Amino acid sequence: MSVIRKLPLLVGIALLGACASQPDDQQLTGTVSHSAGAVQGVPGGIIVDEERVEATVIALDPAARTFTLQDKAGNRRTVKAPPTMRNYSELEVGDKVTSTLRVERAIYLREKGEASREGAAMVLTPPAGSKPGLLIASTQEIVAVVQAIDAAAHTATLRFPDGTSRTYPVRPDVEVKPEYLNQQVVIRVDSQLAVEVKAAQ
Length: 201
Description:
Low-confidence stretches: 1-22
Radius of gyration: 21 Å
Number of strands: 10
Distance between the termini: 42 Å
Helix content: under 10%
Shape: elongated
């Protein structure tokens, strides 16, 4: 769901995409994987996306607290270190930076009486004197309501908490049942961003 796909971007820009402020403002390239699973005949499923970016520190500006990264394709991006990034002074030209963003979305119809879960977030940084790094984990639950169903078109329209509505195709193996109308659809998003910095060999 495109509405949901935007959420992990808020986490992902925390380092490799954040605050690009110099002429070197190219998009760093990486590897992307996607997988999905579902139970036959059961609405919903699980979608997992993972993106991995590897780059090298090619320039530092301590006064501005920025660093420039270059990927294997030669793309360059200058980034202002966010406040959550500790040990900026330990960065050196030639350091290897690896960022891995993993987002898992579980989508299902909520059972009657099932309690909602609150979101949570965690940020971990390395101890003083170590290379910079970052681990951010967050969980968010979004609850939509089945506003309309169309058995002929095999679609369902969901209404989101912000008042917007969107129509989605229903998988061919899932029956569009009248009792789904007004049921809650839970979209649970688990995101993990890990940034690791290693000294050049």
